[in-house]
Write a structure and sequence with these properties.
- This is IcmF-related N-terminal domain-containing protein.
- The protein folds into 5 domains: 16-34 and 60-317, no CATH class; 360-429, no CATH class; 439-571, no CATH class; 596-727, no CATH class; 732-877.
- Strand 16 (781-783) and strand 17 form a beta hairpin.
- The chain is 43% helix and 15% strand.
- It is α+β, with helices and mostly antiparallel strands.
Amino acid sequence: MDTSGRLTQFAEAFYSGAELPPTEAEVVSYTLQIGPIPTHLPDRHEVSSQSVSLAADWQSVIIHDCSGEAVKHYLSSLPPEGSTPLPPSLPAGLTEHGRTSSQHARRTDSGRPSSFPLVGEQWHTKRDPGELQQVLQEADALVVLVAATASELELSEAFSEFRRFLSALQAARCSARKVGGFPVFLVLTQCDRLACPGDTRPIWESRVQARSERAYAAFEAFLRRESEPELPPSDVRQTTLAERAEAGEVAVSGGVEEWTEEGAHRLLFTPFGHLDLHVYAVAARCPGFSAVAEGDAAPYHVAELFRDVFQAAAGQRRRQHQVDRRLQWTIRSMGAFLTAALTVLVVLFLDPPRVEQPTLAEMVAGYREHEPPPAERLAATRLALHRQTLERFRDHTDFWQLSPELQGFVLQRLREIEDYRALRRRLVSSAGPANCRTLAELEQLEQALRDGALSIPSGHGYDWSATEVGRWREKWLHDIAVIRRAEQQLQELYRDRVRLVQRLMDVDHFLGSWREEANVVIQLQEPPYRLEEPLPGAISVPDLPVGQGTAVIWFVPYHFEGVVQWREEWRRWQQRLEALRDLADACGLTHGSNPPTPLRVPAASGLATSAEGPAQRWQQLQQHYGLYLSQPALWEASQFPERIRVVLQDHRSRFLRGVGRQLRQELQRQLGQVNGLDDTPLRWRQVAELLRHPSGDVAAWGKLLHVVLRQGDLQAAEPLAELAGFLSHESFTLELHGVDVWLPPDLALEPPRPDGPLVLKWAGPMREEVILRFPQMGTPLREGSGRLYIFQAEKMEKIQYRPGDTLTLELPLRAGQETMRLVWDRGRSASYQFDGIHQPPRLIRADGRTEAARGVRLSTLAGSVWPVPPPLWYAVLNP
């Protein structure tokens, strides 16, 4: 019911077509009373404040109506986007504005009327936006009017202003902490103008519905387009009627929303400033249809719109009242709490509680009663704290008034701390078992840990077994035992390896599986264990200082002095075995994998084939055994056992003869000798010329022979050069100081003895014979079964021996009554007869019979000069 009657006048003027008087007010307010209409009033026009007495359940509603010009002026007063914030009464956050028609309603349930503004275009406004701004702050609902017949461009302009208007309203309500769910109704007016001639009511209503949906879709598209690339703003809810009905917020009856308690209750928990948007299509009168029942010309959905607006405004007012009440209770509770807390603080400050302090005796007794075990109180993280506590006890003025028991306890604990720290410092500065490198160092460290500077002080009853120092010491003692066992194990291992090598080298042949066994030993893993792995039985204590708690690894005993000595000894024997294997392979003395054999004995007959040629052999030697060419000492026979040396000596002799045979054949070919080399001085000088500058096979055989000869003597001369130098001599100087002659007892039936001086006879082609005598000196010496006789020259005389001269030695003997002579006159060469002294003599008996004097040995005395032909000369001369 309109108490002022003004709305009734407007309705009558509207339906009669009369002109409405203009007003200059910015906002025009109308007060309504809403309640049940008495049944005795049949006409709605008869309802007035005089005709109806207001019941208790009637409610007051204030409608604020404002013009579009007022809204535009209000929006123009807002700062543009990105500018400074709005004043507190209308906070920042307003974004866009446009031409809208809006209506605001406010309603109350407690006697205070709600209001809702309603903005149109027919009112001219003042230029002060303050009144409209205040109305917007206090409004409980907002109604925005848009002409249903507006074009797409007009809708876009209206939506632009509406969007900024809604954003400004939402931001202002959010800043003012207004309850969420503020109802906003977008109303499409003048829908009767959408009717076309010949339309029926259903057709017209469908067109209105389509127009509503298109307007809603246009507004939604506008929001999306204006907020690209973002989605539509989340602070304005855009829901259709169907969605609200499905969510249980409203009930739908005839296309009109019926608000439910559940929907109203849900809006109580929406964010501050949240807006709840609704879309309506209305008409002041229905268009005239050809087949229209009486009464269809009444307004279309206008009453339903106002009913829903009033219900939404009432719900908004109720929620705002609940929020304000809860906020007041919250503020009161916080104030009461702060007051109580401040009161307690003031009381405690002015009258703090008094706690009776315990005496020193009580503190010491309490400390002793609750004292932790040594592992805790002596830990590095708590040691300083306990020490400070005990020192405070000791330095207290009443300390010497304590009982002797408590005094002794404090002093004993302080002494324990000092002893513990001192022992820990000594452990830190000492070298642990992992740093020892000899058994003597291990022994010394073990003694220090048990009875020396690293032991726990005795006589005080310290129980440090579970402390860091105690576990440190126990680990070191354990490590010492583990290292000692591992060191002994490594020594035994290397000793066994050395014995295995010695067994393999104590042989007189390389046949069978010798080579495979040698390979197994040579390829033994070294080191025998992974040095970074822990020793068997080693332990780790993780909480010890860095580097002290790790388990001992094989690296430690592996570098102990005794192990290093045996390891080096093993390496020497291993290298010897490897060198012996390679030497035996090169000489062709092994069986198995058929390795290259460049030093095998040359074939006994015929020239060497290309496969066995010296050049091919030398290439194989360089390719497979190059190490021994650069380090010939590795193949020196003296480093091998006696039985091996005999085998190698036999191979050298056979190889020398084989090479001599090959050289003799090559020299014969080069000198054109078919039946052998002539044993004449001239021929030997020709041979010397060929050997002085060797080439081809001769040079290759010489290099191979040199390698073999150096096995017996590292200082052995190059054989070809040595032989060439020997054969190039024009003469040789001989100076014999004397000789030793050993006579075996079996030369005759009785033991022979010298029967005169030793005689040397020397003669040349154009030279008289020279005779030198060497009488016996002293008594004979018994050596074994025979006797050694010494003969010394009567006078020292040098002989210049030329190749081709004759040279003989004779010694007369007597065996009982039998006389005989020993004659040294047959050497291997007629051109170099001084070689005969190194050959077995002939025994010429009295009857002229001649036989070899086996067992007779002759050697020159010290200081004598007597040439010795090179070994190769013998091989070439008599292969």
